[in-house]
Amino acid sequence: MPLIDLSSPVDATFWEPDPVVHQAMTPAEGARHMSAEMREHLGLEFDPAVLPGGEFLNNDTFTLTTHTGTHVDAPSHYGSKAAYGTPRTIDQMPLDWFYRPGVLLDLRDAETGAVGADVIERALAEIDYRPEPLDIVLLNTGATRHLGTPKYFSDFVGLDASAVHLLLDLGVRVIGTDAFSLDAPFGNIIERYNATGDPGVLWPAHMVGREREYCQIERLGNLDALPRPFGFQVMCFPVKLVNAGAGWARAVALVE
To answer: Which InterPro entries does the UniProt entry name for this protein (predicted)?
Structure first.
């Protein structure tokens, strides 16, 4: 069964609002580090020079947010309170939400901003498919063409509240996008709010999560590689970060 990687990389060379810091430890440094840790924590003396080549194991330290790279947002990310009760953190989410049939919707022709339920309805009609409960819906916005650049955070399309409600009404509980956010870009949101004074334009996709429990997968990649809009499985298990509002995920499609 072919596997298709649907994840975007975590790369310290990419432009990020919160830069990724990558500190690499060489195998020789790893040997000396291990010796020092054994002395401090276990009271053991060990000369790393006796190791072949004076090397042991390398190690890497990454400093990054939970929203860097492909990740799953938990309900607790959307606010501290919800209409349905206390929002769950990422370690509390049911695993069976994240291994389900996938549905791919093409939004690449949409302009920067937020699309509504009418656009989602047209996209579903184009592929002649109606999501089943717990299907994972993936949005191909074309945002990955700007990956690693500032435009990745400013030029993409998101969903408004009506679009999210439509998918949740169909039983969807996980919505994914290749963009930085399931909402419109920050600049677009603030511009529309300043023009209208309407608080309903302020991150509506995320705000729906205060009314109804669901998860977002943001910053997916390689959606163009999917051979068809449905008839595949998606696995996107989030890392079990206790009490966190999001967890990184290696999203993969299984195509029969």
So the answer is: KFase/CYL, KFase_sf
